[in-house]
Amino acid sequence: ECILSGIMSVNGKKVLHMDRNSYYGGESASITPLEDLYKRFNLPGTPPESMGRGRDWNVDLIPKFLMANGQLVKMLLYTEVTRYLDFKVIEGSFVYKGGKIYKVPSTEAEALASSLMGLFEKRRFRKFLVYVANFDENDPRTFEGVDPKKTTMRDVYKKFDLGQDVIDFTGHALALYRTDDYLDQPCQETINRIKLYSESLARYGKSPYLYPLYGLGELPQGFARLSAIYGGTYMLNKPIEEIVVENGKVVGVKSEGEVARCKQLICDPSYVSDRVTKVGQVIRVICILSHPIKNTNDANSCQIIIPQNQVNRKSDIYVCMISSAHNVAAQGKYIAIASTTVETPDPEKEIKPALDLLEPIEQKFVSISDLFAPTDLGTESQIFISRTYDATTHFETTCDDIKDIYKRMMGSEFDFEEMKRKKNDIYGEEEQQ
């Protein structure tokens, strides 16, 4: 919502952004001080002395990293919201196999030394990666007999003779699919996802992921600031009493007795329970640790992916870990957040394989959230509703949703270049340099 209000302001629309909370970012806020997190999860008492100063904590409710070459980084660069943020590279990405975790190789040397696969498998995998790197959907000479819109990914793996373990880690740790449904779909999307991973990795070398200092809550604030520069108005602590609809079309929002009139409305599912449908659930467990995660080479940040095959599930389990190095925890403390899509009536049991990797855990905060999606496109009512954040640990699906809402509102595709030009119109070329 904050990104869209920033983009709409740059587009010359008059934007009023209201939030019932006292902080920015709604569901994706970072909670500070630590006392507030205890309150939010109804834990009795206050955090123990050993947790340090409450103000040193900024705990994300929804864990996600940014792909270095991904869509959100592009949005940040084009809108220059980067000037309000500082990023650090996540130190490593790990994948779970047979009860142990292994580093996802980030260089050729690491790939050769990795015990994730045997020697011959490595050669075949390298051939596959070279193929993906050279693949260009606009140049049929790079296809080598594969039809990107017809050949399934399963067949592409077959072509390179890759075994189940390598398929698991490629599909889930590189292409970042949550399930195995992608295997029987055309391979173009998967190849592009692996390309995104490799290109993101090439930028900084340790992992393809970035994370903002002081937590993800900095992102919505950055875009709120962008909106304000372009004349948008932001109101926190603003209770929404009613969305006013006339003849099936939104005309305003009622708050504290007044109506703010509008032609279009963007909101998350929590404001319009009658216009959304439940599409699933996510369990997230925030864990405070006093030690780095075992077998990660004492990294102060990392991601761990547990592919569903390894734990007899349909969806992967993710762990994101960050620490005091990112100004989100007290000195010597680590925050690890495990998340997955719920599949059974006992979600806590489903997420156990991740928690086992984190022991000993000093304190945990468990949340189970319903996932909602809008029941219609909003073209009639002009009410455009975002989807609830899913279990993935990067912002690619969120950015797809932003672009989708943009298209439904504006009737045209969201175009990064167009946005750049709009900014030049306002600031003039010279100041861009």
From TrEMBL:
GO molecular function, one term: Rab GDP-dissociation inhibitor activity
Membrane topology note: Peripheral membrane protein
Keyword set includes Ion transport: no
GO biological process, one term: small GTPase-mediated signal transduction
Quaternary data: Interacts with RHOH. Interacts with the GDP-bound inactive forms of RAB3A, RAB3B, RAB3C, RAB5A, RAB5B, RAB5C, RAB8A, RAB8B, RAB10, RAB12, RAB35, and RAB43; binds RAB3D to a lesser extent. Interacts with DZIP1; this interaction negatively regulates the interaction of GDI2 with GDP-bound RAB8A.
Family: Belongs to the Rab GDI family.
Protein name, UniProt field: Rab GDP dissociation inhibitor
UniProt source species: Menura novaehollandiae (superb lyrebird)
Gene: Gdi2
